[in-house]
């Protein structure tokens, strides 16, 4: 987990491509969708998702949102499960370095646009930052109601009884809600929303976050958003309040007892260590020690 | 085509559109904040630079535009944005009002299942001033309360906006333009007269 200078664009920006890869017609269409998404917090807006130079499931939705938002003055950070140095994060950061020539960083505080897969940084985000989530499945009800037309109607009616029954059945069978990631949230008291597969541990960070949160699902062709300072409540019951999970351990590198931890198997005899999932947070803490 | 339609559009279409979009996105996600549109554009009267730049950023062949700005401005928009011109505000995705804006209720509202298919009203006003005085705004995007003073809207506008907001999730979103400045109110924002 080093901070090696792997962001070098390798020969500068690519010739023959529009700024940030997408053509201007596509950007305009995505920009219109983004504005409507911000105006209706938590509502999924369909958009004409384009074929990107990487497969669906590798963040094509997030990349298209980032490409429509980012400008030459932005500083981009990309994380994958909290880490800046994993394949997906490195590839996407290098992609924007080459097609947009933007500055990139691994430090949360220095970034203006942060594209993320499956985590929210531990460092609190501030006003003026934009957090772009890569979303595999935008529909929170899809395991409970497979018909897309029917889920649209349920959202229109605000009828989320199915999800409450699912949570109730978890509690009845196992004594607690057994969703540890992609834990459904209510946005502004109106729309049920998938937070993307972030750990439930991260859900409270979404509530009244000062940064703008944008969500892009490339394969499913949906965009949605949460404006700053918007109420985001994890679904729960009065007698079974929402309780985010965290491994009961300290980070083996920085000793943090507050951050979200990854479990790392170290040998074939049951050895394991817990490490911060957010590499930037962990490195900064170690540098301060 | 008249000579006015030949006055230039965005000088750098890619960078200017990106800058304008970020200004509008920022304004829409922080209702009541006033942003400056970075593009240098000189549209024919009565269009102001902010309204012209916003439309050149967002409108294209897929979005019918209705405007009361007169034939010169309409021809300029159609030429530079490539947008069809709607004959009545009920048919438009973007409604640009230089005079008194049309009633919000007649604009495309979207449906309960597809509330995003609603019109966006771009209203040119005399002046925008954020910070103190004028409307008290509350809603998503606002930490506690934003103040915005808008000069040049009809006196009954806040009542009309209340009806628009009550129809949530259906409803019209508003972009206010004065000179080079832009502010926005999504349908979720509550206005209280200061």
Question: What features would you highlight for this structure?
Answer:
heterodimer; A: 289 residues; alpha/beta; 2 domains; 7-stranded mixed β-sheet; 3-stranded antiparallel β-sheet; 7 helices; 12 strands; 27% helix; disordered N terminus; B: 194 residues; Rossmann fold; 4 helices; 25% helix; globular; metal-binding (chain A); Alpha-D-ribose 1-methylphosphonate 5-phosphate C-P lyase (chain A); 4 iron, 4 sulfur cluster binding (chain A); alpha-D-ribose 1-methylphosphonate 5-phosphate C-P-lyase activity (chain A); lyase (chain A)
Characterization of the model:
The longest helix of chain A is centred in the N-terminal third of the chain and has 16 residues. By secondary structure, chain A is α/β, with parallel strands linked by helices. In chain A, helix 1 crosses helix 2. In chain A, the strands form 3 sheets. A 7-stranded mixed sheet of chain A has the order 1-9-8-5-4-2-3. Chain A has a 3-stranded antiparallel sheet with strand order 7-6-10. Chain A has a two-stranded antiparallel ribbon with strand order 11-12. Helix content of chain A is 27%, strand content 17%. The N terminus of chain A is likely disordered. The two termini of chain A are 17 Å apart. Chain B has one domain: Bacterial phosphonate metabolism protein PhnH (Rossmann fold). A 6-stranded mixed sheet of chain B has the order 1-8-7-4-3-2. In chain B, strands 6-5-9 form a 3-stranded antiparallel sheet, covered by helices on one side. At the A-B interface, helix 1, strand 1 and helix 4 of A face helix 1 of B.
């Amino acid at each position: 987990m080093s901070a090696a200078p792997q962001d070098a664009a390798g020969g500068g920006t690519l010739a023959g491509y529009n700024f940030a890869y997408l053509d201007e017609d596509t950007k305009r269409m995505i920009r219109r969708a983004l504005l409507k998404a911000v105006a209706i917090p938590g509502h999924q807006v369909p958009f004409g998702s384009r074929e990107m130079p990487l497969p669906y499931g590798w963040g094509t939705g997030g990349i298209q949102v980032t490409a429509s938002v980012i400008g030459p003055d932005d500083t981009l950070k990309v994380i994958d499960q909290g880490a800046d140095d994993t394949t997906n994060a490195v590839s996407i950061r290098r992609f924007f370095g080459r097609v947009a020539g933007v500055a990139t960083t691994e430090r949360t505080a220095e970034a203006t646009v942060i594209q993320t897969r499956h985590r929210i940084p531990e460092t609190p985000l501030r006003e003026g930052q934009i957090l772009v989530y890569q979303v595999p499945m935008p529909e929170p009800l899809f395991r409970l109601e497979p018909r897309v037309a029917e889920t649209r109607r349920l959202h229109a009616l605000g009828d989320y009884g199915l999800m409450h029954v699912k949570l109730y059945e978890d509690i009845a069978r196992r004594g607690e809600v057994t969703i540890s990631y992609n834990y459904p949230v209510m946005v502004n008291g109106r729309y049920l929303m998938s937070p993307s597969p972030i750990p439930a541990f991260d859900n409270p960070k979404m509530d009244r976050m000062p940064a703008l949160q944008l969500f892009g699902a490339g394969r499913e062709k949906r965009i949605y958003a949460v404006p700053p300072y918007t109420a985001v409540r994890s679904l729960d019951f009065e007698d079974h309040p929402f309780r985010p999970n965290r491994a009961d351990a300290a980070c083996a590198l920085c000793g943090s007892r507050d951050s979200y931890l990854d479990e790392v198997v170290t040998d074939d005899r049951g050895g394991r260590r817990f490490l911060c999932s957010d590499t930037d947070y962990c490195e900064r803490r170690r540098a301060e020690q | 085509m008249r000579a006015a339609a030949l006055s230039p559009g965005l000088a750098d279409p890619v960078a200017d559109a990106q800058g304008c979009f970020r200004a509008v996105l920022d304004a829409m996600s922080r209702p009541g904040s006033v942003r400056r549109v970075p593009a240098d554009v000189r549209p024919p009267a009565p269009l102001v630079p902010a309204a012209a730049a916003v439309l050149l950023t967002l409108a294209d062949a897929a979005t019918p535009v209705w405007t009361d700005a007169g034939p010169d401005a309409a021809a300029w928009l159609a030429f530079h944005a490539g947008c069809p011109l709607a004959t009545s505000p009920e048919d438009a995705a973007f409604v640009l009002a230089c005079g008194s804006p049309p009633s919000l209720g007649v604009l495309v509202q979207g449906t309960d299942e597809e509330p995003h298919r609603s019109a966006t009203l771009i209203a040119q006003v005399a002046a925008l001033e954020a910070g103190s005085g004028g409307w008290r705004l509350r809603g998503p995007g606002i930490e506690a309360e934003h103040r915005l003073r808008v000069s040049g809207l009809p006196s009954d506008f806040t009542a009309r906006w209340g009806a628009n907001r009550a129809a949530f999730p259906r409803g019209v979103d508003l972009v206010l333009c004065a000179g080079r400045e832009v502010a926005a109110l999504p349908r979720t924002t509550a206005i209280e007269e200061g």
